[in-house]
Amino acid sequence: xxxxxxxxxxxxxxxxxxxxxxxxxxxxxxxxxxxxxxxxxxxxxxxxxxxxxxxxxxxxxxxxxxxxxxxxxxxxxxxxxxxxxxxxxxxxxxxxxxxxxxxxxxxxxxxxxxxxxxxxxxxxxxxxxxxxxxxxxxxxxxxxxxxxxxxxxxxxxxxxxxxxxxxxxxxxxxxxxxxx
Length: 180
Hints:
1 helix; five-stranded mixed sheet; Immunoglobulin-like; mainly beta
């Protein structure tokens, strides 16, 4: 093997490795943790949830906004843009102390994901909840071919932007009413 071919091969391998590292890093679920799943799924991420305390007269409520995920199709074949899946998601609000479901959204609309281009949804899912609870967000993301589910994950959000009734803000591990 000539020196030129060896250098070209090494450069291509290095570039491919760097691209994979960037894609994995960009789509890593930094503020979430998978607690259940099955089948084949691609990289995904779910951003930080926002928990805004509100006071209406004597009534305390929490507006909890769950971020929409970004999800790639599983890269099953060499090359980019040659693997695809239909993706949808659903959000659950659970009691942080007991794990019991408090409420949930319906399923999102379907989006097409490729192995090099994620499915994305604009905005987030808003829930208005009683101020006396302590809540967490769980997101179920599903990957489908044209007729059946090929994979799914259940993801627990671990990072929340807390905003008090008076506008003070900080980060926390769950969502509850804050009067400050």
